[in-house]
Amino acid sequence: MGCTARYATAQEFANFWCREPMCDEDKVKIEQFLDIAAADIHVALAATGMCDCTLASWATVFLKKINIIDAEVLQHCLSRCGRTSEMGTAMRQMWLEWVTSQLEAIRMGKLELCAGHTSSDFPSMGWAEQGHSDFQKAQIIWNDILRDA
Q1: Which of 4, 35, 58, 114 can pair with 53 through a Cys bridge, CB separation 3.0 to 4.6 Å?
Q2: 84: pLDDT strictly greater than 80
Q3: How far apart are CA 35 and CA 141, in angstroms?
Q4: How many CB atoms are located within 10 Å of the residue 89 CB?
Q5: Left, alpha or beta for 123 (phi > 0: left; psi -120 to 50: alpha)?
């Protein structure tokens, strides 16, 4: 995957926020903000070593959603095509908090985006075997050897 590019296109941004039609000047601005917003995602992924993994099937769409919402929160430009963001301050703050919480969950390992991996919240159980005699201790060591073979 790599942490080098944006996760959404300008057209996907426009579709998400119902900003059709989109002129060329707006497309360039949107792509710039998608690039800037993608950097936030890259930092979160790099913090947990997920830049070079294969993403889970759902993770690509999830990162696209974060990228699109973060780009909208960041940009305050007026459209040259007559369509402007209708997001008010309260809505912008709400989306900023959502993006921040998702990026924090990625950084903290609560959201694992790599295929085949589990997050830090995944339940796990284990216990240490205890040996009370030399024979039990030897059996524990033998079981460990067999598990690692």
Answers
A1: 114
A2: no
A3: 53
A4: 7
A5: beta
